[in-house]
Amino acid sequence: MRAVVYRGINDLRLETVPVPRIGADELLVKVAVCGVCPTDIKKIHYGTVPPPRIFGHETAGTIVKIGGGKNGGASVPASRFRVGDRVALHHHVPCLKCHECRHASFAQCETYKRTGITAGFEPAGGGYAEYVRVMDFVLPGVVKIPARNSFEEGAMLEPVNTVLKAVKRLNLLRGDNVLVAGQGPIGLMFTKILQLRGVNVLATDLLESRLKLAKKFGAKWVGQASRLSLNEKKIKNEDRRDACPASLDAAIVAVPSDDAVAQALRLVRGGGQVLLFAHTKRASSFSLSARRTGGEGRGEVEAFNLDLSSICLDEKDLIGSYSSDFTLQAEVARLVFSRRLDVRPLITHRFPLEETSEAVHLASNPKPDSLKIVVAADVSPL
How far does CA 357 lie from the centroid of its chain? Predict the structure, then answer.
């Protein structure tokens, strides 16, 4: 089969590799579509994991083979499926038994950190290939796609899951006012999910086109951001009698910008929360009073002042949220497949498997008209 193999930093190659062999209670899935995720982009650009690997974890496709059960019959998870089922995959599932799982910190579970889907080599998702092997321990996260919904909608379950998980970490009430910094695909999902929960959203971004889309996704107010800091004086209000409040109940930083974090801390009221969603690249060292200019890991170190009294005296929470929570899969599926959260307008560009490198390049260098990028496999028969 064809697969796009990561061979080193910024080195993706279309190669021929064996179709994965499946074991007992495992699935072989013919890939239909796979989304391009910033998490994989960081690994490709910065070489944070050793090659070779086949990336891609926002995957949907069709079951073409089911492995026999370990004790003669299929396990309960495997018996839910039939050859021909259209499914959305989920590559991380926790053990639900360890200390971290008992505290609902699923992404810190050692079982969760194992990747349960592969197209070959060290498991890394495998969606940039024609076929993937789905291991038995991640079957509880696999969801059937209803007949009326597309493979692309199925592939979007994983990123929507990460957003819903993050929203649930916030102590929000209906009528609260929340900043969402960044209106790319993830930021727009935050905006819509918050709006569905009765929250008033202030959406900010560098691009006017994304601010217009944020209004369609339910933002009550939109604000233009400069490249250095978010300009608090340029919040647009069509009705001046309903202006954006001076302080907010929470802020979600959906872009890897320290300036956005600093501005969010200023805007959030005492007792409010600031959630970091996009600061996922680890630094070699950490300091509360410094950051690098010129992009991630490059440039000079300059001051980044964090007034710790704002955390202590003002009781502001600075929290993070990372990855997905498979216990939310049923809720996520209802949200997406009902189209209460209609993810279809978020998908703007589709690339064939052989142009995966171009898809990754566009996703890491977005244009005014680009949002979610997907790779669609024109799969050869077995």
Answer: 19
Of 223, 217, 251, whose CA–CA distance to 237 is shortest?
Answer: 223
Q: Please, are residues 118 and 3 in contact by the beta-carbon 8 Å criterion?
A: no
Secondary structure of 2-27 in HEC code, one letter for each residue: EEEEEEECCEEEEEECCCCCCCCCCE
Over residues 244-303, the pLDDT tens digits come to 888 899 999 999 988 899 989 999 999 999 999 998 877 644 445 444 445 444 444 444
- Asked whether residue 165 carries a pLDDT value surpassing 90, the answer given is yes
| pTM score of the predicted model | 0.90
Residues 217 and 291 in one domain: yes
Classify residue 139: in a domain, yes or no. Answer: yes
Whether residues 127 and 220 fall in one domain: no
3-class SS at 348?
A: strand
Q: Do 182 and 47 reside in the same domain of the chain?
A: no
- In the chain, pLDDT over 70 holds for what percent of residues? 87
Say if residue 199 is exposed, middle or buried (CB neighbours under 10 Å; 0-12, 13-18, 19+).
buried
Mark whether 184 and 112 lie in a shared domain.
no
Q: Where are the beta strands (DSSP E) in the chain?
A: 2-8, 11-16, 27-35, 58-66, 86-88, 117-118, 131-134, 143-144, 177-181, 200-205, 221-225, 230-236, 248-253, 268-276, 290-292, 301-303, 317-320, 347-352, 372-376
Say if residues 265 and 310 touch (Cβ distance below 8 Å).
yes
Indicate whether 270 and 252 sit together in one domain: yes
Q: Binning pLDDT at 50, 70 and 90, where does residue 382 land?
A: low
Domain assignment of residue 20, given as a range: 2-161+324-376
Contacts of 137 (CB under 8 A, 6+ apart): 93, 111, 114, 116
Out of 320, 345, 360, a domain closes at 320
Place of tokens 């077995």: 382
CA distance readout (Å), 240 to 205, 235, 236, 245: 21, 11, 9, 11
Does 361 lie in the same domain as 229? no
Q: Percent of the chain, pLDDT > 90?
A: 78
Confidence band of 380 (pLDDT split at 50, 70, 90): low
How far is it, in rounded angstroms, from Cα 4 to Cα 14?
A: 4
How far, in Å, CA of 199 to CA of 353, rounded?
Answer: 39
CB 244 within 8 A of CB 177: yes
- Domain tally for the chain? 2
